[in-house]
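Project standup — Tuesday

K.O.: blocked on the structure for the chain from last sprint. Re-posting the sequence here as requested.
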Amino acid sequence: MSGVRVDRWLWAARFFKTRSLAKTAVEGGKVHVDDQRTKPAKELRIGQVLTIRKGILLQTVIVDALSEQRGPATVAQTLYTETPESIELREISVSRRRMERAGLTVPSGRPNKKDRRALTQLKSLDQDWHNEDE
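H.V.: unblocked you, prediction finished:
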C-alpha cells in the first residue's frame, strides 16, 4: 500500500466518527498535512505530519502506519504518534479548562488595591476558622 486517502486514514485512526465528518473537516481546513491545507483525496504516506483541529483542541501527529479499515481503538493508536509538544499543549489546555470550570482564573497581572483587600479578608476568615477548631 503506497498511500491512503487522508479522510479514510483519519476515520480509520478514530479521529472522526464517520468518514463524512473527516471529509468535512479536511475540506474546512481543520486538517493540514505537512503544514499545508489539503483535500480529502490526497494520498497520505508514512512519516507525514498531520495537524488536526477539533474545536479548541489542536493535535499534531506523525503517521506511523496506513490503514483503510477502521478497527479497534488499540489498533488505531498504533497508526500514529502524537508529538511531545502536542501532548504538553493538550494537557495545559485541559487543566486550564478544568480551572475555569471550577471558577478559578489565572491573574493577568499584579493585584490592585481592591484585590489585595479581598485577599486579606479571605486570609483573615481562614485564620478565624482555623482558630475555632483549636
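K.O.: great, moving the ticket to review. The CA atoms of residues 49 and 62 lie 5 Å apart. The chain has a mean pLDDT of 89.
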